[in-house]
Automatic annotation (TrEMBL):
It comes from the Bacteria. The keyword Endoplasmic reticulum does not apply. This is tRNA-splicing ligase RtcB. GO terms for biological process: RNA processing; RNA repair. Belongs to the RtcB family. The gene is rtcB. It comes from Thermotoga petrophila (strain ATCC BAA-488 / DSM 13995 / JCM 10881 / RKU-1).
Amino acid sequence: MKIERLDKYIWKIPKEGNMKVDAIVFTDAESVNDPQFREAMKQLVNVATLPGIVKYALAMPDIHWGYGFPIGGVAAFDVREGVISPGGVGFDINCGVRLMKTDLTYEDVKDRIRPLVEAIYEFVPAGVGSTGDIVLGKKGLRKVLVEGAEWAVKAGYGLEEDLERIEDGGKIHPADPSHVSEEAFERGNDELGTLGAGNHFVEVQMVQEIYDEELAEFFGLEIGTITVMIHSGSRGFGHQVATDYIRLMRDKLKEHNKNLPDKQLINAPFEHPLGQAYYSAMNCAANYAFANREILGHLVRKAFWKVFGRDTRVDLIYDVAHNIAKVEEYEVDGKRRKLVVHRKGATRSLGPGSEKVPSIYREVGQPVIIPGDMGTASYLLVGTKKAEEKAFGSTAHGAGRVLGRSAALKKLDYREVLDELAEKNIVVMSKSKKTLVEEAPEVYKDVDRVVQIVHEIGISRRVARMIPLGVVKG
């Protein structure tokens, strides 16, 4: 595999063989020389062979191996000639993150971190197979799949003003529940308002550093402000939607998919009935995830109220998706074209003035949230016009794994992980010892480096850095 350096943090694999476009990666030299990185790059090269792909197959600095597409991958396909692929979205459809700010400071909470984490642990169902108190039945769940976060607010699980602080208002169309299987309905029936396991978390944070005073003031943040970050997705519902359509595309589009370099790149032409059915079902799962995070945000508010009183403000800054495919317009070869933009482990990063950015943020650009792991920092950034020009309006979504879950379990010890976090004065509560080891800080890339790269390239701009005080895991 030939890799050319175009700039300090920009690398290219030139088009050759069956590749229809070049592959471009935003990363540093250290990552390029890592053998694990090469495996993910092979996946990006495979993506570059898919029908209708435009400009280039792109990867963010948090790139690592995934199902079909690498995680950290971005690819855009012409709506008429291109495809839609479940592997380019991921099994946890609309896995995403929300950032909330409080009117509390570190001085207010420093002696009450443990009771606050315990309250969050009490209010937020977490862990593998966790279920919540919301059981709707099929008729009620159909409304969630259409209305998304709006349903949650109507049902009393959030605030009306939250909706203008969620990507796409927390409701994406088309979303027709008739394209969703009975198995997906069954799996999603009792998982609304649950965190799940794996890398999902609720984290109490403190703003430690400000990079842009004017933007930080705009967001209501200053050094010492207490924030909360929530990372979760569409739970078993989204996983089932992905599973269903991977199987359907294999069974019904054998001829179309016969020459794939990797069977995990299974796809459908976007305009084919099966492509449209998956798109609609995927949007249903995205709406489920938006509703889920809205409910989780409400449960976190209740935990803060329990510890600090009902007058405590816990306000949403923004909620973003980072596993999704969307129809958007970008310039390709001097023309505006309608594209199906796949972001798998990537965050939308639209600049000032974009009509897709909520009006309250349009003058500064879309808020971008990049979490680290439970032992390191997380970031608030804003989107840029450069991201729209260079990266289909995209940026990184997190630190990115460097160690698989099974490898982490072999290499790391539960007690040592806890002790390491305790040394940093981070209070952790987890449903599973196994999850805590699998998600230890050592298994992730340096999030500071990832953010430095996207900031220097100019596809998102740093506003504030937050450090963890307390974490709830599944």
